[in-house]
Design a protein that fits this description.
Blueprint (H helix, E strand, L loop, with lengths): L2 H21 L6 H8 L3 H8 L2 H24 L4 H11 L3 H11 L2 H24 L8 H17 L1 H7 L8 H17 L6 H10 L17
Helix pairs in contact: 1-2, 1-4, 1-6, 2-3, 3-4, 4-5, 4-7, 6-7, 7-8
């Protein structure tokens, strides 16, 4: 594509992400996206083929940006730098992801699977780098983490209100949410491993050396 075509392609994609997040994917039309950008509906179709093709392009571009940023953070980038970058770059993604998941269907399934793949890739980078531990059941851990993340995404308004703001990217909300989640993921919730040990015993699971240990065991 020429430079002008690439620019139009990006402008249409960015407008679609904004409108899909604001109005919902099903309620947004190709004509509305074209009007948002100031181009003809025919040009949108020329670049993306259909509304579904445009949505797929939005998903792919968003996941590429998230993958590049999060893997960079896990391979050694300063946490504060990553958080500030996320604040500037990822804000439009939250309502878009929430709308896509809440509407369900095949596209929601694909997006969920893509987010699981992103999280799996984070472990592939973070475990060798020493920033993440290797879980006993990687697939279960990946699925749970994505579910947690989507909970905050779809409940953004409620989470932000409880933390003193209007969106997840308000400075106080971002600070409190980032610190709380990082604290939880770093130190865990339970004071020791008794709950985990009891669950393993109840399910008949014995996984020695899986890296799931008490990070702060009580003194003998």
């Amino acid at each position: 594509m020429s430079s002008a075509d690439l620019q139009a392609h990006a402008r249409i994609r960015d407008a679609a992400i904004r409108l899909f997040g604001r109005q919902g994917v099903k309620a947004t039309t190709i004509r509305q996206i074209a009007e948002e950008v100031g181009v003809s509906p025919a040009l949108v179709i020329h670049h993306f083929g259909s509304k579904d093709g445009l949505r797929r392009a939005c998903d792919e571009w968003m996941m590429d940006r998230l993958t590049a940023s999060k893997t960079a953070a896990l391979s050694g980038q300063e946490a504060f730098q990553w958080t500030m970058r996320a604040q500037a770059e990822f804000q439009p993604f939250y309502p878009y992801i929430a709308a896509s998941i809440s509407e369900g269907g095949d596209n929601a399934e694909r997006l969920f699977d893509a987010m699981c793949q992103l999280t799996r890739e984070m472990f592939a980078v973070g475990v060798p780098a020493g920033t993440l531990r290797n879980p006993a059941d990687l697939e279960a851990m990946v699925t749970v983490l994505v579910a947690f993340s989507l909970g905050a995404t779809t409940l953004e308004r409620q989470v932000a209100r409880r933390l003193g703001g209007a969106t997840m990217f308000d400075s106080d909300v971002l600070r409190r949410y980032s610190l709380a989640t990082t604290d939880l993921f770093t130190h865990g919730l339970f004071a020791d491993s008794r709950m985990l040990d009891q669950l393993r015993a109840a399910f008949g699971v014995d996984v020695p050396g899986d890296g799931i240990t008490d990070p702060d065991p009580p003194a003998a």
